[in-house]
Amino acid sequence: MEKNNQTCQMNTLLWNHCIPYHPELADLRSSTPVEETENTIGPYHLSEKLGAGNFASVYACQDETKAIKVLLKNTVNTFSSAKRVANEIEGLRRLRLLHEVLHTPTRIGLVMEAGPKDLFAYLDLCPKGVEESMAKSIMFQLLTAIHECHSKGIFHRDIKPENILIAPDRVVLCDFGLCGFAEEAPFREFLGSPGFFAPELLLDPPYQGDKADIWSMGIVLLEMMVGHEMFESLWLFPTFEKDQIVNKKTFQKNMERGLQKIRQVYWFSRPLQDFLGKILVLDPKKRPTIEDLACHPWLTDSPSPALSSFHSSFSSTSTSNSALSSSVVTESSLPPMLPPMLPPMLPPMPSSSFEHSARKVNPHFILF
Ligand SMILES: Nc1ncnc2c1ncn2[C@@H]1O[C@H](COP(=O)(O)OP(=O)(O)O)[C@@H](O)[C@H]1O
Ligand SMILES: [Mg+2]
């Protein structure tokens, strides 16, 4: 009861005395709040739930090409959670992914293009991991999407399957709440998700956002290749349990042990082992850049069918979304050395509404 009162007081303090004046929280102020009902925010009707994280739920809007990320104001109680919302608005704006921000008395709605299912949901359908060629397709697209962010001075800092949407012809990153901007680098904040944050965030700050994102991308590749369950035993446990993170030495030892286990996964091809091995090195200075990775034989020694073949095999199972496709990464923005997309081998995604299996280590557990 007392804790509730305290949370309530912090919430009032933040919204009445900090947000109206703090220069970094200007986007959270509203001069003209819109009306709301349980299922509407301003002109938008919230229909199917597309996904949910620890901070927000994302709903399809009635015209289906738009999605609205809904944040409850009463869950934004601290400066860091308010900053997270402000960051997300700024990140989406710089990437031109934000249609509008709506403020109601109790909620904030971020209107953006609706995307398809996230990679975590796809991996639910592949308990033993995906085919290597499929992983290659997704990695190629993921490299491209990350390259696009970095070239605009945005470092995502929370790359994980839950925040990667698998569109018909490309991969789209979502959830920019923890992103950092080039003008703030190098970074010192310890944040991200257990299993996916780069080791230097804890072991050796300050850190560079590009190398941290590349590490997380490598971990995503690992999870894709081995599936959720083996990912947990091979990598998540015990390294990322709360009590193991508090001590840097223990954490480093666990990390080294985990990396050794990964090197022993016998069914990865040699080029894949090499690709992953180059990414997953503790010293970020020794980690390759996106350009280095784009030239790696694992990606370049592949057949290169047209992107359209990927699109057609998804059309029966995903939301077709031309606006999303055009507003994110276009082929012309790829680094020139990246090969075109490979055909997909993901099983079709049932078109039911949002449903996820859960991780044992909370994937949304944010560490500040
Ligand atoms: N534009 C979008 N289109 C479709 N689904 C989305 C979109 N953005 C997010 N999602 C889904 O909603 C989930 C939660 O959104 P996210 O932005 O990650 O919230 P949180 O900040 O709470 O983690 C994501 O994991 C994803 O499945
Ligand atoms: Mg998320």
Please name the defining characteristics of this protein:
2 domains; 368 residues; 12 strands; Phosphorylase Kinase, domain 1; disordered C terminus; single chain; alpha+beta; binds magnesium ion; binds adenosine-5'-diphosphate; 13 helices; five-stranded antiparallel sheet; Transferase(Phosphotransferase), domain 1
What is the secondary structure topology, with strand pairs?
Layout: H1 2-18, E1 36-37, E2 40-41, E3 44-45, E4 49-52, E5 56-60, E6 66-72, H2 79-94, E7 98-103, E8 107-113, H3 119-124, H4 132-151, E9 154-155, E10 164-166, E11 171-173, E12 180-181, H5 199-203, H6 209-236, H7 242-245, H8 248-263, H9 270-279, H10 290-294, H11 297-300, H12 307-314, H13 322-327
Antiparallel strand pairs: 1-2, 2-3, 4-5, 5-6, 6-8, 7-8, 9-12, 10-11
Adenosine-5'-diphosphate (ADP) binds at residues 50-56, 58, 67, 69, 112, 114-115, 118, 162-163, 165, 174-175, 177, 364.
Helical fraction equals 25-40%
Overall CATH architecture of the largest domain: Orthogonal Bundle
Rg, Å, rounded: 20 Å
Count of individual domains: 2
The secondary structure category is alpha+beta
Mean pLDDT: 85
SSE sequence, one letter per element: HEEEEEEHEEHHEEEEHHHHHHHHH
Folded structure, characterized:
Strand 4 and strand 5 form a beta hairpin. This protein has 368 residues and is α+β, with helices and mostly antiparallel strands. It has a five-stranded antiparallel β-sheet, with helices on one face. A three-stranded antiparallel β-sheet has the order 1-2-3, with no helix packed on it. The protein has 13 helices and twelve strands. The protein has two domains: 112 residues, Phosphorylase Kinase, domain 1 (2-Layer Sandwich); 249 residues, Transferase(Phosphotransferase), domain 1, CATH 1.10.510. The C terminus is likely disordered. The structure holds adenosine-5'-diphosphate and magnesium ion. Magnesium ion (MG) binds next to loops.
